[in-house]
Amino acid sequence: MNRDDKKKKAEALHEELKKARTVVMSGFEGLTVAQDTVLRRQIAQAGARYEVVKNSLIERAAKDTGIESSAQKLRGTTSLAYTATDPVALAKILVDYAKENPALVFKTGVVEGRVVSMAELESIANLPSREELFAKALFVIKSPGQQLAVAISAVARDLARVIQQGVKENKFKASGS
After folding, report:
1. Residues 104, 119, 75, 32: what is their CA dihedral angle, to the nearest 10 degrees?
2. C-alpha–C-alpha distance, residues 109 and 121, integer Å
3. Amino acid 20: pLDDT
4. Is 41 left (phi over 0), alpha (psi -120 to 50) or beta?
5. Cα–Cα dist 129/61, whole Å
6. Maximum CA extent, the chain
7. What's the pLDDT score for residue 44?
8. Distance (Å, whole) CA 23 – CA 134
9. Residue 87, SS3 per DSSP
10. Tens digit of pLDDT for each residue in 116-151?
11. What are phi and psi of 31, to 5 degrees?
12. What angle do CA 42, 123, 94 make, to 5 degrees?
């Protein structure tokens, strides 16, 4: 790869990292090609990206982004997983995968502009997904109105039952007879 190609690659990665809400850097020494392929597929299905990138390229691309401090002084082989969408989905994939494949070693991560440890990444992975949170919020918003509708309909239903019972027992007499 010549100098111009490296520069273009660094600029493209820089643009991606500026948009990213979550970036996780990890070591992957000891992963087989098949294991790496499975991880790539899972990350892609979550709408995230996964790349193996030279440390010097990460350092250059991270300048003036939210991950600049984390990208300094990386050692060994480094893979970069990042997403501009749901941080929880990416965290779940990486944490679950690392449990099954200890060769994937967490180096550093940044979520929503904040540097996170492995323990914090695991906590994020245990959060409900964005869709689940929206569903819960909608339930909380909708619940009082739904309960009011049930209470109002119960009054009418109970009144109808009382009238029906009265008719059955001939409690109502026709006037004028």
Report:
1. 0
2. 8
3. 85
4. alpha
5. 29
6. 108
7. 92
8. 24
9. helix
10. 888 888 888 888 777 787 888 888 888 887 888 888
11. -75, 140
12. 20
Give residue 47's identity as a one-letter amino acid code: G
Of 112, 121, 128, which Cα lies nearest the Cα of 26? 121
Which residue bears the tokens 């597929």? 41
Q: What is the pLDDT of residues 49-108, one digit of tens each?
A: 998 888 888 888 888 887 777 777 788 888 899 988 888 888 889 999 888 888 888 888
**Whole-angstrom Cα distance, residue 137 to residue 67?**
31
Q: What's the mean per-residue pLDDT of the chain?
A: 84
Structure tokens at 159: 């009144």
> Can you read off the two tokens belonging to residue 76?
């060994």
**Nearest-CA neighbor of 76 among 102, 111, 108?**
108
Structure tokens at 16: 């991606």
